[in-house]
Design brief:
60% of the residues lie in helices and 8% in strands. With 358 residues, the protein is an alpha/beta fold. It has a five-stranded parallel beta sheet with strand order 2-3-4-1-5. Strands 6-7 form a two-stranded parallel ribbon. α9 crosses α10 and α13 crosses α17. It starts with a helix and ends with a helix. Bound molecules: adenosine-5'-triphosphate and magnesium ion. Pfam families: AAA (PF00004), RCF1-5-like_lid (PF21960), Rep_fac_C (PF08542). One of its GO terms (cellular component) is nucleus. Belongs to the activator 1 small subunits family.
């Protein structure tokens, strides 16, 4: 494989994945507890849970690297993360086989404690049978193996399994920390982000740092492509540059509009316009407004979510009116899941808003 090419294609989420637990942002309780484990060179069975893109996988990979170093990593750490690898058969065979291997090799530069780590990522999709099988294996091999179970929803993990682990909750990353991280990445990659674009990124990623980084990378790729396309004489140069390890062109500016385009998010202005026109409309005008929104192919569930936010913050409405509209939004969301017609549902919301603003 061409090494340069492989460097070029690294997703930024991987490139900027924390290498040590100190680099993990905002999860101080987890990091502090794990730092103690690093000191004592021992870790319990662990259960990480929390929303996507908040550092669960990164944290366990970082601590495993800090314990064993890259040389021993492969022989000491087993990572299972494809959902289809989770049948009871894998639990009985793969995990068992790995757990039985000895763990006596040492790397002098790292603590290399005499155990192995089995990471079961995305465990939400693990069947109950497999979880039950895992519970027995955990007990059987707990001397030489530590399990790290990772999931988004702790309720999907059976109690007897959860109670065998030290549980750590990962919190959504707050905007300020996300912004710092994104600004750092942008600076390192030589791209400029408008203040508003950063806000749009926050809005579309909702505390999911992975999502934010992915949107940032896709947007910057789009810009560099556009620049290359618009100046054909520079195209050749850009291709040559690509071969010499330059990912994006320096000084490209990321705008709010581009972020909305790439993330397929609904701009707040669109929802504002929708609500304003509901307030002022007659039923006839309302049909046109809703039809226009449907034609623009924006995600209706996202429009509902943003409408909910705006209605709650609206000072004109009293609490009863707000509650009525919120209830309507929840009904509509549920009907959409059941396959109801988007236009009719949007119109129903429009009518409800119209009535409450009279
Ligand atoms: N707390 C954090 N500190 C620094 N970077 C982070 C953090 N959380 C997420 N990231 C960034 O997002 C990427 C994805 O994070 P990670 O894979 O650890 O998320 P996760 O919590 O395991 O998500 P999922 O539940 O979807 O598997 C990382 O490579 C890193 O770039
Ligand atoms: Mg993960």
């Amino acid at each position: 494989m061409n090494l340069k090419k492989s460097i070029i294609s690294i997703p930024w989420t991987e490139k900027y994945r924390p290498k040590t637990i100190d680099e993990v942002a905002h999860q101080s309780e987890v990091v502090d507890a794990l730092k103690n484990s690093l000191k004592t060179e021992n870790i319990p069975h662990i259960l990480f849970y929390g929303p996507p893109g908040t550092g669960k996988t990164s944290t366990i990979l970082a601590i495993a690297t800090q314990l064993f170093g890259p040389k021993l990593f492969r022989s000491r750490v087993l990572e299972l993360n494809a959902s289809d690898e989770r049948g009871i058969q894998v639990i009985r065979d793969k995990v068992k086989k790995f757990a039985q291997l000895s763990a006596i090799q040492k790397d002098d530069r790292y603590p290399s404690p005499a155990f192995k780590i089995i990471i079961l990522d995305e465990c939400d999709s693990m069947t109950q049978d497999a979880q039950n099988a895992l519970r027995r294996i955990m007990e059987q091999y707990s001397k030489e193996t530590r399990f790290c179970i990772i999931c988004n929803y702790i309720s999907k993990i059976i109690d007897p399994l959860a109670s065998r682990c030290a549980k750590f909750r990962f919190k959504p990353i707050p905007e300020k920390i996300m912004q710092e991280r994104l600004n750092f990445i942008a600076k390192t990659e030589g791209i400029e982000i408008e203040e508003k674009a950063l806000e749009a990124l926050m809005e579309s990623s909702q505390g999911d740092l992975r999502k934010a980084i992915t949107i940032l990378q896709s947007t910057s790729k789009m810009i560099s492509k556009k620049t290359t396309q618009s100046k054909p004489e520079e195209k050749k140069m850009a291709i040559e540059e690509e071969d010499t390890n330059i990912e994006t062109e320096p000084n490209v500016k990321i705008t709010e509009e581009l972020i909305f385009d790439v993330s397929c998010s609904v701009p707040l202005s669109v929802v504002k316009e929708f609500i304003e026109s509901c307030k002022a409309s007659s039923i006839n005008e309302l049909v046109t407004t809703c039809q226009k929104l449907i034609n623009s192919a924006f995600s209706i569930p996202q429009i509902l979510l943003l409408s909910l936010k705006m209605i709650i913050e609206d000072n004109f409405l009293n609490n009863l009116q707000k509650a009525e509209i919120c209830e309507k939004i929840s009904e509509i969301e549920s009907r959409l899941i059941d396959g109801a017609d988007e236009l009719l549902q949007l119109m129903e919301l429009g009518v409800c808003i119209l009535e409450n603003y009279r």
